[in-house]
Every structure is written in structure tokens, then in C-alpha cells.
Design a protein that fits this description.
The protein is an alpha/beta fold and 562 residues long. The protein has 15 helices and 21 strands. Strands 7-6-9-3-11-15-4-16 form an 8-stranded mixed sheet, with helices on both faces. Strands 18-19-20-21 form a 4-stranded antiparallel sheet, with helices on one face.
Length: 562
């Protein structure tokens, strides 16, 4: 039987199958218009590819488990390589997603034009640990119990869900050389997850000496703090962890590899503190900064638990940001945009190295963030929520066959997908045996079809045991552990200001319709939920979490961490 790999190689025989280095360039001071329309190259070629891929990609791929497969003539051909770029705390403020009008992400935008941009992609946990645990294990938080941050590297002790079962480990078991650099895992040693690891020096730094902060000082509160601050620091790009990670990845792409490789590159920015050298701030003058939309009375129609679970006493809020005519708000937005611009350039360095390497025509590229981020919306500068800004993530998949014309219009898919889908997607694209433990769905059919019959109606995100959000193409439904709901219609309320399940709903007829919709979507909430994982941190972010973690046995009656 013909497999997807054979279709890929057949396609490469046509002109235009090679990506171009020229698309990945240094950021300019002018935002990219990523939605401009350009003529496609060879409609016949793309129609042929889509038709053949659709016929042969629906069954899960099976194939040889070594590093080479054979075509119909018995000629050996290499398995594709994988370049996975994971960005920390990047929301939808990238040009191709139009999340902010002033952003500058020419390299990410160029990559989106080469592949498929998933406009409705969401994380499974709106903080680093649960999201990465889900993506790398292919399991939902309610299966593993990783609802909150895991401590140290304790996930390695879990042989049922994690040890030896993470995505790069699965590739290593099936003939791949696995390489990683920067922040990829959370609660699991990168040295264990990868055969070769390039390190992650300085963590989220570098930071000023003596604990100095530039703009945000932590308020007094008994709950866990944050590194949140913003400012121009340090002096040079070479001092930044992401520069070094990109350089290490480039070295790997310039080296010889006897096996197909799985290379994961973890970029730290724009994770807090929002520190990058001054030159990146200069791209975004304060007088030109556009502030995000927000609504001061946004939380008046929320259930009590919806307010309490989302409180963040240590984090910046609108009162602080808006003081002195939005002084800190403008600086914060400027810094976040500067960090995005900086990390886009580091991504561009890696992509250019790939394009000029011998691996350009046989490497699958995936770019994603681990979760979204609020920049003032919902009265916060943080993740830690079940709302759109926290769960919504960039997700781009580019096959080596997707390159046709640099002027080609962006290919996008609007169906609800999750980071949990990456594990089975990459397994299928690389012709590896299906991993039966994966709880996500392969995105391969969606790479070539905007609509796929039988695709899920909603994607799930979980924040603390018993609290979940569902995102469809049109709505978001949140259900809390006490049974209360929030419901938002994104066709008329993309900012999620009007909770259709809350006190602001006055029409009885409308309430009945919304209740029926909520009841229908509720079938997609999990019916069973694992206890908290033994690795769960005992540091609560607010009073509700302290009560919740005590009730679930995470924090003992007398908390030794306090």
C-alpha cells in the first residue's frame, strides 16, 4: 500500500518542493501584512497532493521501524526529520493570527505561509507544567493528574504515564536520533527525555544583580510569587538563553546525522521577566503602542468560583497598569512585543539554517506555544485561566512538501485542535507505529482539508481538578467544580465580555437556548478525573487554591512549605 511518505516523495519530484532561505529574514520596523492575497502556484499539483493524501492518510500509518523505508521499487528512502520549536508563554500576538496590530513576527509569518496555521488551537493546561506534560505524553491532565506545576523532576518516577513514554523517547525507540535544547519538558529531565541535550543556561534570565526590578515590585501576599517585570536588559543578544539555544540548534543542523533526527528547540521568551536588549524595544515606540481591549466590569457576570479560582494576588492588575495615564500598561505591552520580536528572530536563525542544510527537503517543522497569555485582559498579566487568552496558542505545521510559492496565501484550519494532537500527528507523518495510549487525534487529515467529517466538536482545557473549558468553533463553555458555568459566543463576543450563563442574561428565551447548548456541550467534559499527581507543587497562587489543594490532599493540614 502507498503510504504518506511515498506521496511526500512523489510530490518533491515536482518543481517548487524546496523551501527558500530568503523567506526567513531579520524583523523590520514595519508589521507584516500576513493576510494579503497572492496567486497560488500550480493548482493541479496541490489538488493532486490533497486528493492522494486524503485517501491514504486516514488509516494510521504503519511501516518499517528502522530509520529507512522502501518505496515500490525497493529503493531505500529516509524517514523525515522533525524540527519542533516550542515557545514559552506566546499568545496569539503574531502577525499571521492578527492578535495585535503592532506585532512584528516576519519569520513565524513566513513559516505559516509554508504550512498549515491552526487558528483554533488550544493547550490542555493553561500553565507550563500541565501543558507540556500533556503534549509530550499524549495524555490529558485528567488522566495523569498533572493539573498544576510538578515539582523538580518527579514525573520521571511515574512509569505508568511518563517514564520512557514521552514523544522524543518514542521516536528514539523507533530509530530516531533525539536532540533537545532549552526549555522543553517541565518536571522531567531533558537529559532523560533526549539522547543529546544542549542545555538551558540562565533559565529565564539573565536578571539584574541583587534581585533588582525595573517596573514591577511584588506586593505583600502569602501566596506564590512571579518573576513578572519588564525592561531593557541585558545589553547583547548573545547573553540571552534563546540566542544560545538557537546557536546550538544551528550547529546540529550543520552536522551530519546517520539517523533521522527529532530536534526540539525550546525558546524561553516571551516568558517573564519581559527582558530583552534595548534594540528590540526600539522597534516599538511607546507613543505608538496599541493597548489591548478590556472591559472594566468584565467580571460582574461571573460565578463566585469563577472569580476566586482566577485571583492572582502577586501579579500585576489593571489598577497598577493604568495608573499615571497607562504608563506601566504601555511599557508592559511594549516589552511583550519586544520579546516576541526577539524570539521571532531567533526562530528565523534556526529556520534559515534548516533551509540551507541538506535536510531542508525532508524535515517536518512544528511551531507552537505551550499556552497563551493575558496582557491586561481579564484584569491580569499572566496565564492561569480558563479564558481564551490563556488557552489559545499558535500552532503551525509545515511539511517539506508544502513549499510552493513565497507569495502563496496562508493555509489555515479553524477546527478546534489541541497540543495533545501533536504526538499522534508526528507519529503518523513519520510512519511510526501508532501509540495506542495517545488520547489526542492525528491532525494529518486537517493538513489538507478545512473540514473533516467526524472531527471533534470541542477541545478541552483543564485548570485544577474539576475545572474545565471547552472551545468549539463558535463558543467557549467553562464548568467549575461546583457545577457553575460560563458561556461565551465568539461570533459576537470574541473578547468574552458577556457571560451568557451569568446574571447579565435577562431574556428567558435566550437563557433556555444557552442552557440547551451548555447541556449539549457538557457531554465532552471528562466523566472521571485522576487524583492529583504525587509531584504536584504545594505552593498555591491564591486562597481558593490553598483550600482546594488541602481538600485534595496535596497540602497537608500543616503545610511544611509555609
Amino acid at each position: 500500500m502507498i503510504e504518506i511518505q511515498q506521496v511526500v516523495h512523489m510530490f518533491l519530484a515536482f518543481p517548487g518542493g524546496r523551501r527558500s532561505e530568503s523567506d526567513f529574514s531579520r524583523p523590520t520596523s514595519r508589521p507584516i501584512d500576513s493576510q494579503s492575497t497572492h496567486p497560488r502556484s500550480s493548482l493541479i499539483k496541490w489538488t493532486f497532493l490533497a486528493a492522494v493524501i486524503f485517501l491514504f492518510s486516514l488509516p494510521q500509518m504503519s511501516g518499517a521501524q528502522d530509520e529507512q523505508q522502501s518505496n515500490d521499487d525497493g529503493e531505500a528512502r529516509p524517514k523525515p526529520n522533525v524540527l519542533l520549536i516550542m515557545v514559552d508563554d506566546l499568545n496569539d500576538w503574531i502577525g499571521c493570527m492578527r492578535g495585535h496590530p503592532g506585532t512584528q513576527t516576519p519569520n513565524i509569518d513566513a513559516l505559516s505561509r509554508e504550512g498549515v496555521l491552526f487558528m483554533n488551537a488550544h493547550c490542555q493546561g493553561p500553565i507550563c507544567g500541565p501543558s507540556r506534560a500533556s503534549l509530550l505524553s499524549g495524555l490529558y491532565p485528567h488522566t495523569t493528574g498533572v493539573y498544576q506545576q510538578p515539582t523538580k523532576n518527579n514525573l520521571e518516577k511515574d512509569e505508568e504515564h511518563f517514564r520512557g513514554k514521552l514523544l522524543p523517547e518514542y521516536f528514539a525507540q523507533h530509530g530516531y536520533e533525539t536532540l533537545g535544547v532549552g526549555k522543553i519538558t517541565h518536571g522531567y529531565s531533558e537529559d532523560v527525555a533526549f539522547q543529546k541535550y544542549g542545555g538551558w543556561k540562565d533559565g529565564f534570565g539573565p536578571k539584574p544583580e541583587g534581585g533588582k526590578r525595573f517596573n514591577y515590585e511584588l506586593p505583600s501576599s502569602p501566596y506564590s510569587g512571579t518573576q513578572t517585570d519588564w525592561g531593557a536588559f541585558p545589553e547583547r543578544d548573545e547573553q540571552m538563553p534563546d540566542f544560545r539555544s538557537a546557536s546550538w540548534a544551528i550547529e546540529q543542523l550543520e552536522s551530519d546525522h546517520e539517523k533521522p533526527f527529532f530536534l526540539a528547540v525550546g525558546m524561553v521568551r516571551p516568558h517573564v521577566p519581559f527582558y530583552v536588549p534595548e534594540k528590540w524595544f526600539e522597534q516599538f515606540p511607546l507613543e505608538n503602542i496599541v493597548l489591548p481591549k478590556f472591559y472594566r466590569e468584565d467580571q460582574n457576570d461571573l460565578p463566585e468560583l469563577g472569580i476566586r479560582i482566577h485571583e492572582l494576588p502577586k501579579y500585576p492588575n489593571l489598577e497598577f497598569l493604568q495608573a499615571n495615564d497607562d504608563e506601566q500598561y504601555r511599557k508592559c505591552v511594549q516589552a511583550y512585543l519586544a520579546c516576541i520580536n526577539f524570539v521571532d528572530f531567533q526562530i528565523g536563525r534556526v529556520l534559515r539554517a534548516l533551509m540551507t542544510s541538506e535536510f531542508a527537503d525532508n524535515t517536518i517543522i512544528v511551531l507552537c506555544s505551550d499556552h497563551g497569555y493575558h496582557i491586561g485582559e481579564k484584569d491580569r498579566v499572566s496565564k492561569h485561566s480558563l479564558w481564551e487568552e490563556s488557552t489559545h496558542v499558535p500552532l503551525i505545521i509545515s511539511l517539506p512538501v508544502h513549499r510552493s510559492d513565497p507569495r502563496e496565501i496562508i493555509r489555515r484550519n479553524d477546527l478546534p485542535v489541541g497540543l495533545i494532537d501533536l504526538y499522534p500527528t508526528l507519529v503518523q507523518l513519520c510512519g511510526l507505529p501508532e501509540n495506542p495510549s495517545n488520547e489526542g487525534e492525528s491532525l494529518v487529515p486537517l493538513l489538507f482539508h478545512p473540514q473533516v467529517e467526524g472531527w471533534r466538536e470541542a477541545i478541552l482545557t483543564t485548570y485544577a481538578k474539576g475545572n474545565h473549558a471547552l472551545r468549539t468553533q463558535t463558543h467557549r463553555l467553562i464548568r467549575y467544580e461546583d457545577g457553575r458555568f460560563e458561556l461565551y459566543d465568539h461570533t459576537s463576543d470574541p473578547e468574552e465580555w458577556n457571560n451568557l450563563a451569568g446574571p447579565a442574561q435577562t431574556s428567558r428565551a435566550a437563557m433556555e437556548v444557552n442552557f440547551e447548548l451548555a447541556q449539549h456541550l457538557s457531554q465532552y467534559f471528562p466523566t472521571t478525573e485522576a487524583d492529583y499527581h504525587p509531584s504536584t507543587s504545594r505552593s498555591p497562587v491564591n486562597a481558593w487554591f490553598e483550600e482546594h489543594l488541602k481538600a485534595n490532599g496535596v497540602i497537608p493540614a500543616k503545610n511544611p512549605d509555609k
